[in-house]
């Protein structure tokens, strides 16, 4: 199957924002890592491990990761690495899963260090373009983006918060990804829920 998702290096894209937020000198698990592009734009001082369903993507991720394995997130099982990670990244992956709450909780409970960081992004169904199309009766699925036809779940800011509250995560920061409107959202944060294509949350593990 053709991979329709590619690295977006624009300053305010979801990829670039997450690449910056993962920090430096961290041990990172990228859940749903695709071709490994978060590692490409993050600090080279980080060490990445990755999971993805696509074997083709895993082969590419291994070029920049310490290790990566093919893994079905709808059938969670123990990982081959006996590691607790400083950071877990789930970038635009939970919306594709049958039970995102279960998968999120499994990785936070078992593989994130105490006080470790989780960075999670979800497509914003309340984006202005979706709202405008709905006004004219249009709700057409596409091959990629917010209305990707493989999405099983749709999220607004409120429903995203509800998802995160199902596990031991404290939200530290909320921001939005948008290559076009990023500069506006940076200086006018109240516009993020409307203008962002992705809702991005930086969270801390509060499990003792």
Task: Estimate the global geometry from the Cα principal axes.
Answer: globular
Distance between the termini: 42 Å
Whole-number average pLDDT?
A: 93
Strand content: 15-25%
Q: Helix fraction?
A: 25-40%
CATH architectural name: 3-Layer(aba) Sandwich
Largest pleated sheet: 7 strands, mixed
Number of H/I helices: 8
The rounded Rg comes to 16 Å
Tell me, what is the CATH class?
Answer: Alpha Beta
Low-pLDDT parts are: none
* Number of beta strands: 7
CATH homologous superfamily caption: Vaccinia Virus protein VP39
In N-to-C order, the SSE pattern is: HEHEHEEHEHHEHHE
Number of domains: 1
> In oligomeric terms, what are we looking at?
single chain
- Reported by name, the CATH topology is Rossmann fold
Describe this structure in words.
28% of the residues lie in helices and 25% in strands. The protein is of the alpha/beta class. It has one domain (14-205): Vaccinia Virus protein VP39 (Rossmann fold, 3-Layer(aba) Sandwich). Strands 3-2-1-4-5-7-6 form a 7-stranded mixed sheet, with helices on both faces.
Give keywords.
28% helix; Rossmann fold; 8 helices; globular; seven-stranded mixed β-sheet; 7 strands; 208 residues; alpha/beta
Give a nutshell description of this structure.
By secondary structure, the chain is α/β, with parallel strands linked by helices.
């Amino acid at each position: 199957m053709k991979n329709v998702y590619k690295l977006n290096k624009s300053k305010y894209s979801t990829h670039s924002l997450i690449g910056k937020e993962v920090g430096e000198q961290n041990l990172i698990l990228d859940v749903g890592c695709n071709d490994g592009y978060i590692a490409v734009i993050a600090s080279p001082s980080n060490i990445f491990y990755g999971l993805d369903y696509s074997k083709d993507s895993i082969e590419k991720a291994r070029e920049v990761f310490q290790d990566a394995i093919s893994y079905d997130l709808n059938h969670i099982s123990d990982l081959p690495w006996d590691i607790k990670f400083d950071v877990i990244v789930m970038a635009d992956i939970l919306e594709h899963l049958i039970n995102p709450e279960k998968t999120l909780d499994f990785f936070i409970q078992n593989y994130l260090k105490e006080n470790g960081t989780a960075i999670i992004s979800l497509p914003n169904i309340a984006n202005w373009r979706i709202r405008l199309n709905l006004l004219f009766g249009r709700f057409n699925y596409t091959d990629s983006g917010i209305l990707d036809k493989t999405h099983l779940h749709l999220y607004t800011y409120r429903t995203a918060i509800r998802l995160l509250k199902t596990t031991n995560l404290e939200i530290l920061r909320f921001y939005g990804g948008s290559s076009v409107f990023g500069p506006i959202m940076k200086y006018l944060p109240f516009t993020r829920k409307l203008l962002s294509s992705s809702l991005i949350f930086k969270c801390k593990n509060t499990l003792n």
